[in-house]
Write a structure and sequence with these properties.
CATH topology of the largest domain in chain A: D-Maltodextrin-Binding Protein, domain 2
Number of domains of chain A: 2
Number of helices of chain A: 11
Radius of gyration of chain A: 21 Å
Strand content of chain A: 15-25%
Number of helices of chain B: 21
Shape of chain A: globular
Distance between the termini of chain A: 66 Å
Distance between the termini of chain B: 46 Å
Number of strands of chain A: 10
Oligomer: heterodimer
Chain lengths: 323, 500
Amino acid sequence: MKHLNLKSLTLGAVLSLGMAAPTLAAECIAPANPGGGWDFTCRSIGKIMFDIGAVDAPIQVTNMAGGGGGLAYGLVVNDRSDDAELIVAASSATATRLAQNAYAGMTYDQVRFLGAIGVDAGIIAVATDSPFQNLNELLDAVIADPSSVTFAGGSAVGGFDHLKVLMALKRQGLEDIRTVKYIGVDGGGDAVTQAIGGFVQAITGDISEVVGFIKSGDVRVLAVLTEDRLPGEFGNIPTAREQGIDVVAGNWRGLYVPKGISDDEYARWSNALQAVADSDEWAAAMEANGLTAFNFVGDDFQIYVSNLMGEIADLSREIGVIE
Amino acid sequence: METMTLLGQGFSVALTPTNLMLAVAGCILGTIIGALPGLGPSNGVAILIPLAFSLGLDATAALVLMTSVYYGAMYGGRISSILLNIPGDEPALMTTLDGYPMAKAGRAADALVISGVASFVGALLATFGLILMAPILASIAYKFGPAEYFALYLLAFSTLGGLTGNNQAKAVLAACIGLAIATIGGNSSGTPRLSFDSLYLYDGVNFLVAIVGLFAVTEVFVFIESSGKNTAIGVKIDKITIPVRDIIRTFGTMLRGTVIGFIAGILPGAGASLGSFLAYSGEKAYAKDKSQFGKGDVRGVAAPEAGNNAAAGGALVPMLTLGVPGSGTTAVLLALLMTLNITPGPTLFSDRPEVVWGLIAALLISNVVLLILNVPMVKIFVKILMVPPWVLLPGVTMVSFVGIYSISSSWFDLLLMIGFGTLGFFLRKLDIPTVPIILGILLGGHMEDALQRAMVISGGEWQYLFSSKIAIGLWIAAVVGFVAPMFLRKFLKQPDAVPD
């Protein structure tokens, strides 16, 4: 009895050590609970960086949920603005929240965006029994009667899944985008079940969220929101561009670093990130998670983020999410 | 027959020495994680994911480890509920209501054994449900839209009043406090509310912070104030015997709890907490003699434990077949699956049978391991909680702080936790139950989201809330659940408790 008791205590001790092991290695902050896209970014990019020798020590991942990523952003801006051993996961959601001023007044130029090396392609889809066969039919039906179609997506109202639909509808000629009906549910899988159940008429999300349902034949993807068609098994899905609607919107997986680090340190991180982007390991990780290549590292990426934020801010103002 | 063949193959995968060892290790770790207040199944599984990768485990082995931790935590949560009146994790909340009074009356061992058996029955039957009916059950999720979910949460709240204590008004007051707290933060309409421009409140109040504050921290305060006299800490436990008569008597209770919990588990978003809650209130509504509920009724221990373990199994159904996580823990497991290059969805059962059936076999094995750990060997875990108060209390405090800090690495949550502890201390003085507060926080946000979605879809037409047979049925149940106790109480008023 005594022996077993000691054993379980030891296990407990190992466990608590595992949670708070202090280390001198670089740190990657995932500004959300384990399990989401940001957590994936830190864990896989961090692991590959070490595996291919781009960094000397394994990168420690810290989960810091709160404020939709704002807590971590505040920490980087206020407390660790010159910490060269810190990278933070970012995505389209980060840019959206920054553009909507949802990080308590902090702005995108208070950190340095490092790059994004993969994208989860945006999609607009319907349940298989839906009458809509292509993106134009769906968008025209919304324009004719906005109350006839409800979109469901994994982000809240005003989030990136919502904005993707609005971008498409605006290109198609809808004047008043506030009339579009959108509900935010708990992720893409939930959006699909609501569509199959007939509660909503269309799904907006990322391709990785609906892969299982495409294979089972429950969902028909009307368009991928990428520049070119996806490689591999989803190559038969047309892009929105092919259908005459010029929208490219995906959920990119990237990183930012503190503003106050030197240009040399910035270059060191961007080289490490580029090395990951070029590795076979990353190609495999992208394929496993439904991502496609998207290679924007360094200063180009800063410009990309800034342009994206401009469009998001305009749309958000129109639907009244910001003033 | 095909099922049996597949299950046989599953066992041949799961029964390798490595996997078996991982299952046992996972069960032990999970039970400890569950028993420690502040550490629940979702952080337990999340903490161990890096371990699974650094050990280089293959898909099946990693799943075996993680699901045994998950199930272990679901079993373990009840231990501190019963012995300390502090729920080890949120689904074990309901077990405090009757488990702790039983312990106070000297029946801690009985409570642990009965709840252990109930956990086993719930988890085992839920696993069989998963085996036999997963693809069919998945289609239940298609029947639940915003209107149906709203009615479901309404049903939960309608039965709250009769839940705890003798004073219904106080329970309702507590539920309202919980609902008020649930309104803090960004809702699904995208605009933050009552967050006072603070990033810390932007996502609302994490219910774990509230649970650990209202239970663990409050207990520490009460202990300090009464110099250790008026506190839950230090319940004696005697020899573990099997209360056969009670187990036979509560077998029906366990079955009913299992069914309710399993259904709640299948519905994405409802999850184990709702499962154990509805199992408890359902059992109380069903029971003829309700006088002992809240005072140490064995049924009040058996029902929620069968319910929450069945819900844990049920939650795997939408996760595997739809890729929709029904709870925080399944969300983490889902991420693990994706990382292992397994895409959950309607085709998972045909695409990757070895993974699914290996997982199911692992669930069955870990259930047996957990029954052994949690009934004949439960004393080992009890020992951890049975150290003298001067060791235990600092330990509880430390684990609470570490557990809460690990959520967001922020001091704010720690202050909030202490704030909840203080609130809980005064509520204890006023004899206001804290369980309804937690339920308000847990379910209030979901209920509001459902209503908001229903209103968007219908363009503001309230009739939409009654637009399906399921919704109408749930509304009727909610109204009956709310009104019936008022009339029944008049008829059933019993001045003296009926001895058992």
